[in-house]
């Protein structure tokens, strides 16, 4: 149902009054001559093959170029009205039955648009319900395209909710209602292929689509009359009207070429968000509108998408759509049929051009202006709907995150929790451990630590990261910490997100240029020792003395090779014990240490909103300091935070991130959750800048 | 609806100070509260296995008991106390972690569903430019009220904040108002009070500080008639911006809005043209 606030809105009531007034005073020629006679004939015995029954009584093949879905939706109102007309002739109830059905569908369209643009109630009512186009198309010219578009849009909304079977069925219903909705099908196909998260769900979508479309369309193919009226409608020929001479009597049709180019461009987007899908569908429909002698009803296909465009664009978009709409209506008032005014002798059913003498160039001139504004609108749709779309900018190239830090600082853990957010399918993870030159048992480790860059194949690491950044697959070995040996090489395919973690992930300046976000993990030295001993003894099965020796021997290399990477990082996370650990202050390994997280942000990184949300939404204690030596902002965060807080904080700060994350992102509580929050917001900032 | 002046009061000067209530005055309280209660109810169902009906009944009873015990004080609004008592009424004794979790769930969802009324920040900006002091006088505990102010990004807009936790009692008692006046320092001109509650805000501010009272009208707000009612009723902060600009022009003080120079004799055209961006903005909202 439409919200009560909408129903009470004066804008809504104005639009409704206009519609009711039009229904009461005018009857569109198309209703009177085509649709109502066809639907009335249904009651007179045409239920099995209404198209044949219609042609048999001498009806025009143009009367109802629609499938059984349209029939099922429109017939009840007309048949009920016809029955009333038999009982009380002169009421015009059949006419009202069709018009009120259209009004109900029009209201459903408003509700659908409100669902597509939540929180923009008044703007939606203004831009759709008060648009003079809708009354012109539905109640003056009398087209029924509101039905298929309504089904298509609801299919879109249901698809966003990932109810695949119902979404597939609704798309099939839209195409069955009007074949031209098939224009949208390839866009849906590309969307479902491009989003890796949706791929496993796509078979259910297509199965539902195919079953419904077969059930609804196959019987029609058995009826020659339906084939003639529905599949052979002269309307379809309009797609080939605009042609360019190719010489030697050959022609190239412009619309199929333009349509294929849009599909190709859609394919090249690689990963499409829901918002991008609606923008691209809109562009497809608008271009067909511009490049064909479109019927007025065709404007309905593009109208909801144009409302969404205007909401995004603001006054300039509204002005452009208004100009385009004015040209469209002006052109069609001159060339298309209209309505007969009831209770008067005034018949405006015929096009203006047949009623009055227009200046010779009037029609071509208006058409030229219509095409020109339409093309400008298409360019703006591409610019504002696609090129400036945050998600488009985010997803053109993989998101590259580099994580460096000393052994035991939590690189793998941070990489894992980030993979938990993006989803395993969407992440290619490269670990620096896989690029150690020798297995752990090799004698060279006695003279050199892993921390020494020369003990690692860094050039291969850099090459692999660069290849993944370009979307190419790599082959990489894997270092097994349990055995200390490298496995055989395995294939790592390119993906939407690349996480490169390792001791030297930020070592070479040129690889740092590839990353969108560079993270360094630091830690209070005493805490690091405590945690490393805990991890290596319990998870990796090494004796304590060996771990301590290893820490001591590695410390000089750590200072020399690892710590300097912090200067290249955008974010330095540093875990600190809430109470300092002293040399003589033994902390049992099984005791949970209270920690705080210090986050140093490169100058220029935004932190204000994150801090605001951490304090306000998560109830954390946050200190902000500017380091006078480095100008870095140091944010220290203390307190308990759970995964739900972090999930809501990210939704609040970067709502557009939803599309990049897994369907069920694994948010973390505590310090890991805070790291997730800073990484996600930092990544979005970085991607916006590229 | 335009601004309604219900009780003729001298409204010729810019205010020296404006006092604001917070909940349901700067943002609509009910939608945020409903969303927060829904989330808390679902969590309680998930974790404790209690039905929605049982949750609602015990929460209502817990709230009633806390309010009865504490009277008109800041703590009497504490969701943490309500949830603590609710868990006790269910028979779980004091479950510290669970009570904290339910409280955090409540406020997290509450805040994420709370949005400022339109034009609040613009109006506060106009007051700042006009040199008017501003203070919040609000019931409830300081911790959550500060979190709200930070969440809405209002921390830079207000000069002072007074909570009933700080004052010791809720409005309409005089303590919160007097504390606010103390913080504001000597005031020579008029004081405006903007609130939604006919008793706590409107009567309280008029009786204690003799403020010109403005009641924010929207769904669910009760407006009293006659002597008990507010001086002025408004629906949109835009209306207060216009009023402030009018008073500013009247007194020859610098206006918050930069004036454009227009040819003489075209006031209607000027008004029409100037209203276009605002109309578009309103339409797009």
TrEMBL record, chain B:
Keywords: Hydrolase, Magnesium. Pfam families: Hydrolase. Its cofactor is Mg(2+). InterPro entries: HAD-like_hydrolase, HAD-like_sf, HAD-SF_hydro_IA, HAD_sf. This is Hydrolase. One of its GO terms (molecular function) is hydrolase activity. The keyword Hydrolase applies. It comes from the Bacteria. One of its GO terms (biological process) is small molecule metabolic process. The keyword Acyltransferase does not apply. It comes from Skermanella stibiiresistens SB22.
């Amino acid at each position: 149902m439409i919200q009560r606030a909408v129903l009470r809105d004066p804008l809504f009531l104005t639009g409704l009054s206009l519609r009711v007034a039009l229904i009461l005073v005018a009857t569109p020629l198309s209703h009177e001559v085509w649709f109502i006679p066809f639907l009335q004939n249904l009651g007179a015995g045409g239920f099995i093959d209404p198209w044949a029954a219609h042609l048999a009584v001498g009806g025009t093949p143009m009367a109802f170029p629609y499938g059984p879905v349209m029939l099922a939706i429109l017939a009840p109102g007309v048949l009920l009205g016809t029955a009333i007309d038999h009982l009380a002739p002169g009421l015009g109830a059949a006419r009202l039955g069709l018009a009120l059905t259209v009004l109900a569908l029009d209201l459903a369209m408003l509700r659908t648009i409100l669902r597509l643009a939540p929180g923009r109630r008044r703007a939606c009512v203004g831009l759709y319900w008060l648009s003079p186009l809708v009354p012109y198309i539905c109640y003056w010219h009398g087209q029924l395209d509101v039905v298929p578009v309504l089904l298509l849009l609801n299919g879109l909304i249901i698809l966003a909710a990932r109810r695949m079977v119902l979404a597939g069925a609704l798309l099939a219903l839209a195409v069955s209602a009007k074949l031209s909705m098939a224009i949208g099908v390839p866009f849906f196909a590309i969307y479902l292929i491009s989003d890796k998260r949706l791929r496993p769900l796509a078979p259910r979508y297509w199965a539902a689509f195919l079953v419904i479309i077969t059930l609804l369309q196959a019987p029609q193919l058995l009826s020659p009359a339906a084939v003639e009226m529905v599949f052979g409608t002269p309307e379809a020929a309009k797609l080939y009207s605009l042609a360019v001479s190719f010489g030697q009597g050959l022609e190239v049709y412009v619309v199929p070429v333009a349509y294929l180019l849009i599909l190709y461009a859609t394919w090249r987007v690689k990963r499409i968000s829901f918002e991008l899908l609606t923008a691209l569908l809109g562009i497809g429909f608008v271009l067909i509108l511009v490049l064909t002698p479109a019927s007025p009803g065709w404007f309905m296909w593009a109208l909801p998408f144009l409302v969404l465009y205007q909401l995004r664009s603001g006054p300039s978009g509204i002005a452009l759509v208004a100009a385009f709409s004015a040209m469209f209506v002006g052109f069609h008032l001159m060339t298309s049929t209209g309505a007969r005014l009831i209770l008067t002798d005034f018949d405006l059913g015929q096009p203006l051009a047949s009623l009055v003498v227009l200046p010779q160039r009037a029609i071509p001139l208006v058409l030229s202006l219509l095409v020109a504004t339409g093309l400008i609108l298409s360019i703006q749709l591409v610019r504002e709907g696609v090129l400036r779309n945050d998600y488009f900018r985010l997803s053109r190239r993989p998101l590259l995150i580099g994580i460096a830090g000393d052994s035991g600082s939590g690189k793998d853990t941070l990489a894992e929790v980030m993979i938990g957010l993006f989803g395993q399918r969407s992440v290619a993870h490269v670990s620096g451990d896989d690029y150690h030159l020798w297995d752990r048992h090799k004698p060279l480790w006695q003279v050199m630590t892993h921390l020494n860059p020369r003990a690692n194949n860094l050039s291969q690491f850099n090459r692999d990261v660069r290849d993944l950044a370009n979307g190419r697959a790599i082959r990489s070995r894997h270092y097994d910490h349990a055995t200390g040996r490298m496995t055989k090489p395995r294939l790592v395919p390119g993906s939407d997100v690349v996480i490169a973690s390792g001791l030297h992930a930020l070592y070479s300046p040129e690889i740092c240029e590839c990353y969108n976000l560079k993270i360094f993990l630091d830690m209070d030295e005493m805490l690091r020792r405590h945690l490393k001993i805990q991890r290596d003894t319990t998870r990796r099965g090494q004796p304590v003395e060996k771990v301590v020796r290893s820490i001591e021997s590695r410390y000089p290399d750590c200072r020399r090779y690892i710590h300097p990477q912090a200067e290249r990082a955008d974010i330095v996370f540093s875990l600190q014990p809430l109470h300092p650990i002293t040399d003589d202050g033994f902390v049992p390994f099984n005791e949970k240490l209270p920690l705080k997280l210090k986050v140093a942000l490169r100058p220029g990184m935004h932190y204000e909103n994150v801090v605001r949300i951490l304090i306000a939404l998560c109830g954390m204690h946050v200190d902000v300091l500017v380091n006078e030596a480095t100008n870095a902002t140091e944010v220290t965060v203390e307190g308990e935070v759970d995964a739900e807080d972090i999930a809501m904080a990210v939704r609040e700060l970067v709502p557009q991130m939803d599309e990049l994350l897994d369907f069920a992102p694994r948010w973390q509580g505590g310090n890991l959750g805070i790291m997730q929050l800073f990484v996600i917001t930092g990544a979005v900032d970085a991607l916006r800048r590229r | 609806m335009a601004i309604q002046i219900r009780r003729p009061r001298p409204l010729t000067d810019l205010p020296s100070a404006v006092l604001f209530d917070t909940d349901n005055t700067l943002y609509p309280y009910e939608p945020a509260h409903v969303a927060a209660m829904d989330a808390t109810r679902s969590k309680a169902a998930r974790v404790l296995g209690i039905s929605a009906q049982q949750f609602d009944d015990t929460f209502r009873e817990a709230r009633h008991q806390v309010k009865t015990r504490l009277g008109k004080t800041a703590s009497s609004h504490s969701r943490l106390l309500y949830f603590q008592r609710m868990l006790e009424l269910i028979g779980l004794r004091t479950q510290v972690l669970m009570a904290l979790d339910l409280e955090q769930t409540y406020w997290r969802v509450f805040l994420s569903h709370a949005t400022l009324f339109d034009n609040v920040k613009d109006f506060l900006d106009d007051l700042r430019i006009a040199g008017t002091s501003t203070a919040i006088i609000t019931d409830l505990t300081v911790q959550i009220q500060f979190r709200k102010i930070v969440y809405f990004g209002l921390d830079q807009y207000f000069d002072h904040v007074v909570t009933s936790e700080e004052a010791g009692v809720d409005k309409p008692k005089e303590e919160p108002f007097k504390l606010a006046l103390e913080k504001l320092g000597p005031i020579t001109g008029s004081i405006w009070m903007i609130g939604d509650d006919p008793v706590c805000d409107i009567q309280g501010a008029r009786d204690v500080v003799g403020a010109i009272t403005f009641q924010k009208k929207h769904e669910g707000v009760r407006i009293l008639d006659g002597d008990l009612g507010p001086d002025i009723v408004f629906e949109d902060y835009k209306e207060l911006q216009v009023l402030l600009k009018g008073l500013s022009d009247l007194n020859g003080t610098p206006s918050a809005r930069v004036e454009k120079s227009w040819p003489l004799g075209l006031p209607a055209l000027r008004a029409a043209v100037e209203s276009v961006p605002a109309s578009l903005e309103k339409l797009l909202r």
